[in-house]
TrEMBL record, chain A:
<dbReference type="InterPro" id="IPR050107">
    <property type="entry name" value="ABC_carbohydrate_import_ATPase"/>
</dbReference>
<dbReference type="GO" id="GO:0005886">
    <property type="term" value="C:plasma membrane"/>
</dbReference>
<dbReference type="Pfam" id="PF00005">
    <property type="entry name" value="ABC_tran"/>
</dbReference>
<keyword id="KW-1003">Cell membrane</keyword>
<keyword id="KW-0067">ATP-binding</keyword>
<feature type="domain" description="ABC transporter">
    <location>
        <begin position="11"/>
        <end position="247"/>
    </location>
</feature>
<protein>
    <submittedName>
        <fullName>Sugar ABC transporter ATP-binding protein</fullName>
    </submittedName>
</protein>
<keyword id="KW-1278">Translocase</keyword>
<keyword id="KW-0472">Membrane</keyword>
<dbReference type="GO" id="GO:0016887">
    <property type="term" value="F:ATP hydrolysis activity"/>
</dbReference>
<dbReference type="InterPro" id="IPR003439">
    <property type="entry name" value="ABC_transporter-like_ATP-bd"/>
</dbReference>
<dbReference type="InterPro" id="IPR003593">
    <property type="entry name" value="AAA+_ATPase"/>
</dbReference>
<keyword id="KW-0547">Nucleotide-binding</keyword>
<feature type="domain" description="ABC transporter">
    <location>
        <begin position="261"/>
        <end position="504"/>
    </location>
</feature>
<keyword id="KW-0813">Transport</keyword>
<dbReference type="GO" id="GO:0005524">
    <property type="term" value="F:ATP binding"/>
</dbReference>
<dbReference type="InterPro" id="IPR027417">
    <property type="entry name" value="P-loop_NTPase"/>
</dbReference>
Length: 506, 346
């Protein structure tokens, strides 16, 4: 923590502007980072955070504005130049090479060598020192990175950042791929870094994380900084949301609608198991009910959803949808019976990013618009558009490339797909990952609306708050087993966390 | 009069929905012609170069027919291959499967049987050979999880070997008169080979752009996992796609038999490379998910026009190969620059 408010800033950015092909991405951004602080950069998707990071790391050249580094005006002309200054960046998409070892990844681009020959031992020794510094001395430098979890890959990426003489590390949404336990570990590492005098620019959508780790906050909206260097302790969450979105968000989670007693059971999972991953999962969900699965990453949450859906072949048990028993391992069967999955990795598992939006909306239903194999594309497009409008998908342009939509609107494409299909059971895996704060409330409301219309929903989320806020019933999963089933009214975040941790310890 | 008009207007307005309709210009530019504008320009430039350098020898109706006839066999193969590449795969076996088809159809026993029954037998057999080879490719790739490059490389080598074995490495002359008459016929002055090319191209265009089959092919190539999780039977569809490629190789076999009046295991050597070049130059992405039939046809025509211009000017074939290489590189470079703009083609 910083006590001395007058310490010379490490980095001072003033009035940075940047335009791409006529679009003004940055309209004048200020930022001031002090040594050894955690400075949070907050803003919705498209606010200009990524552009700013790329300017600071030398990927983009700004059109205007001043960057001062340790008091001197600099122009960061190239990523290598940024590293030379002591600015390292950890991008959201982990930039590690799976086929190389940890040490090889850490020194990628600045290998320890003499006369073209690699000094493997020295690199391993130096890598180990860095890993110890990050509190991960248990990782062996000669391990292949492809075998590591996402959290450990991030540690490797961080070690690489530190392998240059780094004074400032920019972390772009490092928590997006982590569960709550791993996030705690990440915070421990960040605190160690700041204790050693390294400054961190931390980017996240999760306001509660910023509360925990941040010292000061800069808020960016529409390419301009709305507030520079606010103290985290003195700023309320409501104020931050207002600064980010320009409007006040009263209550993020919509009110629950009681599930009618006569609502039929739509999906019944009996003794489902996947060898080596999870065993004996039984649950049933009625129409209008939302059941949340909480647990650590690796507890088997996502695998349970995927097995229910048939994307993985169950080794035990079975799934019954509205009285129809599904064949194990057949997605096609599940879809026909009325199950839909909005997968965890929206971009790689859910969407064809370069295709038009309407074709992604109709991906499960386009055959309906065909007669004798010939598609009636006009009607298909029209029906997709109506669905998009019903979900307030923005922009409501069916011909746009899906890649250009924001995270929240991409999620709506998936929901639209299953609504169009007439899905009775929706499986939602991390429905708000990569969705910014303003759009989250909208997705929550939409999920509630779907339930109110009689859909049975099974929800998986790393954010316990989200599970409790949305679900009627919560199943706590630990180590491939259902530890507890509880009414969501009867439990709070701490209670779930407690159960989760007990499960992990058991 | 005004009353019925008003009724029609009232009915049609909500259906067409005003602003949501793409503009006319946007429609044209996003249509086949607009998306392949670069290829059309390249072809026009080649025609101008040919006309200037070789005059009437080049710019004559007969010569244009020659160019298209020259393009027709590789064109039919390339059209089948386009589907495979859009689906995210590759088929290296097209040339040797075509060779095998010519050998099987021209076996003495087959020709004798054809004379006994009908020359149609010599049309059906190459088609059957192509479908069978495609089926094997598809099953090995989709259900055996073998990388398409390796599976079809194995088929390339295997089919060539089989063709050598059953022909004894001899050239088998076609003597079946009914078959020869059919393949050498002309309809309104246009040779059959060109008609076949044209019909295959039109059918393929419909298949890719207007049917569920085409939509599935593009979806799988665009994102295989997303397609699977959306409920598309990905493996089964991939088998169909390789069968289609085998089928077009078989049809090309019929055309080859007719043009050369001989079946031999050397037919179609290195055709896979020419076909891949035509498909890629035509704008189809090798990683799948995007490609056009019109582009492939233009790609094939560009290469055959180029060959013709060189031949008419009595230029060295080595120079021609170098030019081909340059065209491929430039086309791919341009593709990378412009491919990321806008939604996919069909």
């Amino acid at each position: 923590m910083i006590d001395d408010d007058h310490s010379e800033p490490l980095l001072r950015v003033h009035g940075i502007t940047k335009a791409f092909a006529g679009v003004q991405a940055l309209k004048g951004v200020d930022l001031e980072v002090r040594p050894a602080e955690v400075h949070c950069l907050l803003g919705q998707n498209g606010a200009g955070k990524s552009t700013l990071i790329k300017v600071l790391s030398g990927v983009y050249q700004p059109d205007g504005g001043v960057i001062r580094w340790q008091g001197d005006e600099v122009s960061i002309i190239h990523p290598v130049f940024a590293l030379g200054l002591g600015i390292a960046t950890m991008y959201q998409e982990l930039d590690v090479v799976d086929g190389l070892t940890i040490a090889e990844n850490i020194f990628l681009g600045h290998e320890r060598s003499s006369g073209g020959l690699l000094k493997v031992k020295e690199a391993n020794r130096a890598a180990r020192a860095l890993l110890v510094r990050l509190g991960h001395g248990n990782l062996s430098p000669s391990t292949e990175v492809g075998r590591l979890s996402a959290a450990n890959k991030q540690i490797v990426s961080m070690a690489r950042a530190l392998s240059h003489d780094t004074k400032l590390i920019i972390m772009d949404e490092p928590s997006a791929v982590l569960d709550s336990e791993e996030v705690r570990n990440l915070f421990r590492v960040i605190r160690e870094l700041t204790a050693q005098g390294v400054a961190v620019v931390y980017i996240s959508h999760r306001l509660e994380e910023i509360r925990q780790i941040g010292d000061r906050i800069t808020v960016i909206k529409d390419g301009s900084s709305m507030a520079v260097g606010l103290s985290v302790a003195d700023t309320s969450t409501a104020d931050l949301i207002t600064l980010m979105t320009g409007r006040t968000v009263a209550n993020v989670f919509p009110d629950r609608v009681p599930v009618p007693a006569e609502a039929p059971v739509l999906i019944e999972v009996a003794g489902l198991g996947l060898r080596g991953i999870f065993a004996d999962v039984s649950l049933s969900v009625r129409g209008g009910e939302i059941v949340g699965l909480a647990g650590l990453v690796g507890s088997g949450r996502s695998e349970i959803l995927e097995t229910i859906y048939g994307a993985r072949k169950a080794s035990a048990g079975h799934v019954t949808v509205a009285g129809v028993r599904l064949a194990a391992g057949s997605v096609n069967d599940a879809v026909k019976a009325g199950i839909g999955l909005a997968p965890e990795e929206r971009k790689s598992q859910g969407l064809i990013l370069d295709e038009q939006v309407y074709r992604n909306v109709t991906l499960s239903t386009f055959a309906r618009f065909a007669r004798g194999g010939f598609l009636d594309e006009r009607r298909e497009r029209q029906v997709a558009l109506e669905q998009m409008q019903a979900l307030e998908l923005r922009p409501a342009d069916p011909d746009r490339a899906t890649r250009t939509l924001s995270g929240g609107n991409q999620q709506k494409v998936l929901l639209a797909r299953w609504l169009l299909h007439g899905t009775k059971v929706l499986l939602l895996d991390e429905p708000t990952r990569g969705v910014d704060v303003g759009a989250r409330a909208e997705i929550y409301a939409l999920i509630r609306r779907l339930a109110a219309a009689g859909t049975a929903i099974i929800l998986v989320s790393s954010e316990i708050e989200e599970v409790i806020g949305l679900a009627d019933r919560v199943l706590v999963i630990g180590d491939g087993e259902v530890l507890t089933t509880t009414d969501a009214h009867a439990i709070d975040e701490a209670g779930v966390l407690d159960l989760v941790m007990k499960g992990a310890a058991a | 009069m005004s009353e019925p008009n008003g009724a029609i207007a009232a009915q049609t307005v909500p259906e067409t929905g005003g602003e949501n309709r793409p503009g006319v210009l946007r429609r044209i530019m996003s249509g086949s012609v607009g998306r392949n504008l670069g290829l059309v320009i390249a072809l026009v430039v080649l025609v101008i170069v040919g006309t200037v350098t070789a005059g009437d020898r080049f710019a004559s109706y007969d010569n244009f027919l020659t160019i298209i006839r020259f393009a027709s066999i590789i064109g039919v193969i390339s059209i089948g291959l386009t589907f495979v590449i859009i689906a995210g795969g590759i088929d290296l076996s097209v040339g040797s499967v075509m060779g095998l088809a010519t050998v099987v159809a021209s076996l003495t026993a087959v020709q004798a049987a054809a004379t006994q029954s009908s020359w149609l037998l010599m049309v059906l057999i190459p088609v059957g050979v192509g479908i069978a080879a495609g089926l094997i490719n598809g099953i090995v790739i989709a259900y055996g999880n073998v990388v398409a490059f390796m599976a079809t490389l194995a088929m390339l080598v295997g089919a060539r070997g089989l063709a050598e074995l059953i022909s004894g490495r001899r050239t088998q002359i076609v003597i079946e008169t009914g078959f020869l008459q059919f393949t050498r016929s002309s309809i309104i002055g246009v040779p059959l080979l060109i008609w076949v090319f044209l019909i295959v191209a039109i059918l393929a265009w419909f298949l890719l752009n207007r049917t569920t089959f085409g939509r599935r092919t593009v979806a799988i190539g665009g994102n295989r996992e997303a397609s699977r999780l959306a409920g598309i039977r990905v493996k089964r569809h991939l088998v169909y796609v390789y069968v289609l490629s085998g089928l077009t190789a078989g049809i090309a076999g019929i055309m080859m038999l007719g043009r050369t009046t001989a079946g031999t295991s050397t037919h179609g050597g290195l055709y896979e490379l020419d076909a891949i070049a035509a498909v890629v130059v035509g704008g189809t992405l090798l990683i799948g998910g995007r490609g056009t039939i019109v582009g492939t046809v233009l790609g094939v025509l560009i290469f055959s026009t180029l060959t013709n211009v060189f031949t008419q000017n009595n230029l060295d074939t080595s120079v021609q190969s170098i030019t081909k290489g340059l065209i491929i590189v430039v086309a791919v470079l341009l593709q990378q620059r412009f491919a990321s703009r806008g939604p996919s083609g069909t």
